[in-house]
Amino acid sequence: MVTSETTQAVVEAGEKLGVVDCDVHPLMPGAISELYPYMPDVWRRRLEARDMVTLSTLPQGRHPHPAGAAFLRRESIPPTGGPPGSDVDFLRTDLLDAHNIACALLLPLQATSVSWWTDPDEAAVLASAYNRYFAEEWLTKDDRFRLAMVVAPQDPQKAAEEIRTFGAVDRVITVWLPLLNMPVGNRYYAPILEAAQEMDLPVMLHPIGADGNFQGSPSFACGVARSYTERYCLLSQVAMSCLSSAIFEGIFETYPRLKLILSEYGWTWLPPMLWRMDTAWQGLRIDTPWVRRPPSEYVIDHVRFTSEPAVEIPNRQFLEHTLEAMHAERTLLFSSDYPHWDSDDPELVFKHLDPKLRQRIFVDNAVETYPRLGLVR
């Protein structure tokens, strides 16, 4: 097993440690040609021949945001120009310095667009190039950055190879798996889960432009949503399906050291889901005999959720009850979702919680979830 060579930052617990932000979206500002130095020449020539040099991003989804480009926070636009999230120096000032962020986990959404690519080899090359681009252009610029490496799901064996090679890079701390239209517990993904456990990397799921958009990507019940707003409200369906699949397919029995992160799918739906799974398991144990413990116990030990959006619960009493029912002291990680329209500032969410619970959500849970985070409490 390869261990990260991250130099551990010995820091004090509490406020001096700062916040661990588990969802920050950097952006490659230029065209796909910026990836050419990070891929084999034969693939560069192939993409150049198809005029992909002119693309600033891979194809997008079919639900345009009602505010257009304003779905990104306008105050996050760098003074030098370019879209929010594209300027390393400004993001460092606007997010890390302004909000006492000790670690920011970078989730490059552009890279996940490979999930709806039809050529599995090309998808794997593009994902690998994106990984190396963000490692070179971002991780080297600030010790507080961490990276979620992206794998192309079309070929699980190739994805496993990428995990075992790029997953050894310093400050790469999780594997981002863009899903095909099958839940994470499906044995199709077994090579990916095995390699992730081998490398001490949690597997993360996160909404991308493909969900509910493209054939072959995760679909919603009763078909395609009409509007962006409707689709946004339905994204939790994907997480519910994957959580149920992970538990009842027994992936945590097969991979007992694996952690699964459900990022930006919401979390207020979790308590009734836990109750329903536990009840079904108790009454139907003959159906899934390999599930040896109540589903809620697997979730507490192996599954984590990120907080954004954290302002959906209308009052403090409901919030505290929900956090207690989902065992938030173990399962919830703070995330800002910077620089998107619904992003959360750490000073504005969970303000009235018990300080010990805030410490768990904003720092401790992340330190315990990501073995290679590199922070010591």
Throw out a few tags for this protein.
377 residues; alpha/beta; TIM Barrel; 8-stranded parallel β-sheet; 14 helices; 10 strands; disordered N terminus
Largest sheet: 8 strands, parallel
Beta strand count = 10
The first-level CATH class name? Alpha Beta
What Rg is obtained from the alpha carbons, in whole angstroms?
20 Å
Shape: globular
The CATH architecture category equals Alpha-Beta Barrel
Integer tally of domains: 1
Helix content: 25-40%
CATH fold category name: TIM Barrel
Write the CATH homologous superfamily.
Metal-dependent hydrolases
Q: Strand fraction band? A: 5-15%
Give me the oligomer status: single chain
Number of helices: 14
- Rounded mean pLDDT score: 89
Helix-strand pattern: EEHHEHHEHEHEHHHEHHEHHEHE
Distance between the termini: 24 Å
Give me the side-by-side strand order of the main sheet.
2-3-4-5-6-7-8-9
Low-confidence stretches: 1-15
Helix/strand/pairing category: alpha/beta
